[in-house]
Design a protein that fits this description.
The protein contains 16 helices and no strands. The chain is an all-alpha fold.
Length: 312
């Protein structure tokens, strides 16, 4: 496969996944903002999406305060914000158009119709329909794209690079959400691992569709240790770091070339660390430190994938 084609397929999938993850994050943030609280803490939750996506600095350059309306405007429809849902849908479609012959007609129709619908979206319509309805729609379109891909695409290298993009992006997002919870949302560093507000931890689980899984596995009250274990080390949790790196490693082995040997090695090393890891040791070494290091390693892996497969 041409490196340019593989690159387009990889980033097409990453941007579809990124749009869904942004919708999940904003949906939970919006629901949490409706919980009664002290006036001085009214907009506290809205720092989280900006910190998770690393866009607090550019946001602050355009808006004087962090509040619901401005954050939603910036993260949903802002054409100049590369992390907005609008921008993700546009770039995903552009990548799909560049490799039109390597994806199925059904895959293209989903991305194209999603983009057309988003172009008709504005703040007025968002207010009238409700932001929760919009976030559900974004998630459904992402689910539809993945379902159509699995149901119609040939199991060739194009399919593998599409899946690789999904799992690398998902690992990045889960890491950011967990780190934001431990390092940003908590009142102070002293609270890490201590008594944490039930609704905030439930929001973390809901943001990665893990609330029902948590109840099924642990059948107990929500605790930081178990949430971290579920989202980091559980191989059977679809959005956990372990599951994402297991899939990424297996895909990289399947499409590996001599030039991409380092990417395979890095992915294998990350998977092994998660497979044999223990959550107690992670807590002892510091959750924030672990997640910061893991995020750096995901970024390093992304660079190795680019170097091994996409660089001519």
């Amino acid at each position: 496969m041409l490196s340019r084609t593989a690159n387009n397929l990889y980033w097409m999938a990453r941007y579809v996944e990124r749009a869904e993850n942004t919708a999940r994050m904003l949906d939970v943030t919006y629901r949490m903002s409706l919980v009664p609280k002290e006036p001085r803490l009214a907009d506290q939750e809205w720092f989280a999406p900006l910190n998770i996506t690393g866009t607090l600095f550019p946001f602050s350059g355009r808006y004087s305060e962090v509040g619901a309306r401005d954050v939603l405007r910036y993260m949903v429809l802002d054409q100049d914000n590369p992390s907005s849902i609008y921008s993700c849908a546009r770039v995903a479609r552009e990548n799909a158009r560049a490799v039109r012959g390597s994806i199925t007609s059904d895959m293209w129709e989903v991305l194209n119709s999603t983009w057309i619908e988003l172009q008709n979206m504005n703040e007025s319509r968002l207010d009238n329909d409700g932001v929760v309805h919009f976030f559900d729609w974004v998630k459904e379109r992402s689910h539809l794209f993945r379902g159509v891909t699995v149901g119609t695409a040939l199991r060739d290298q194009a399919f593998q690079f599409n899946r690789l993009g999904i799992f690398i992006e998902r690992a990045d997002n889960t890491t950011r959400i967990l780190d934001a919870k431990y390092h940003v949302l908590l009142p102070s560093v002293d609270d890490v691992g201590g008594a944490v507000d039930y609704y905030q931890w439930a929001a973390v689980l809901q943001s990665v569709s893990a609330f029902d899984s948590y109840r099924k596995i642990y059948r107990d009250m929500i605790t930081p240790l178990r949430v971290a274990e579920l989202l980091i080390l559980r191989e059977d949790m679809p959005r956990s770091l372990h599951a994402c790196m297991k899939e990424s490693y297996e895909i990289l082995r399947a499409v590996s070339t001599e030039q991409a040997a380092e990417a395979v090695r890095v992915a294998g090393e990350m998977h092994a660390g998660l497979h044999f890891g223990r959550i107690e040791r992670i807590f002892q070494g510091g959750m924030h430190e672990y997640l910061t290091d893991f995020l750096k390693r995901v970024d390093d892996l992304g660079r190795e994938i680019t170097k091994g497969f996409f660089t001519v």
